Automatic annotation (TrEMBL):
GO terms for molecular function: NAD+ poly-ADP-ribosyltransferase activity; tRNA 2'-phosphotransferase activity. The gene is kptA. This is Probable RNA 2'-phosphotransferase. Belongs to the KptA/TPT1 family. InterPro entries: Ptrans_KptA/Tpt1, RNA_2'-PTrans_C, RNA_2'-PTrans_KptA, RNA_2'-PTrans_N.
Length: 179
């Protein structure tokens, strides 16, 4: 059962963050999808999903990747989109330092060019080293970068805080990164 929930959660991430066309789903401009349409289209692709299971996934996801609207008729990914959506996040003042987990293989490019959003809409940063370590560990031995977010903000870089607590920005130039 738990393995199936993990598979469904990953599939939802694919659909709601990157490739809604995989199941013929249309996200609105703010990344929202109709819950009943999502369930129906997922079930047409030989994957069993009902509203109780979807609620369970949203409520128990350790990274709070998904969110419902108030009446639970719409769902979206909290952040991490590679498809163009407007999350309507407010610009916020970040803490002094934020963190980013990566691996050694990317360090040469990061030291030259900084952190780039690549195929996503934003660079993702965390407010603690523990989360950054988990993120970096997905690809091997993690390297934790310390981002001087206060200095960036003072230099007019915009920061946003997603609903699930991930800090977002467009780019982190190399001069704001420490090891």
């Amino acid at each position: 059962m738990e393995k199936n929930l993990k598979h469904l959660s990953k599939f939802l991430s694919l659909i709601l963050r990157h490739k809604p066309e995989t199941i013929g789903l249309q996200l609105n401009e703010n990344g929202w999808a109709n819950v009943q349409e999502l369930i129906s289209k997922i079930n047409q692709h030989n994957t069993a999903l009902d509203s109780e299971t979807l609620n369970h996934i949203v409520e128990t996801n350790d990274k709070k990747r998904f969110a419902f609207n108030e009446d639970k008729t719409m769902i979206r990914a909290s952040q991490g989109h590679s498809v163009e959506v407007e999350l309507n996040l407010k610009e916020m003042q970040p803490p002094q330092f934020l963190y980013h987990g990566t691996v050694q293989a990317f360090m040469e490019a990061i030291q030259k060019e900084g952190l780039k959003k690549m195929s996503r809409q934003h660079v993702h940063l965390s407010n603690n080293q523990e989360t950054a370590t988990k993120v970096g560990s997905r690809r091997g031995k993690p390297v934790i970068l310390i981002i001087n977010a206060a200095a960036m903000h003072a230099d007019s870089y915009a920061f946003f805080l997603s609903d699930n607590g991930v800090w977002l920005t467009d780019h982190v130039p190399a001069q704001y990164i420490q090891l």
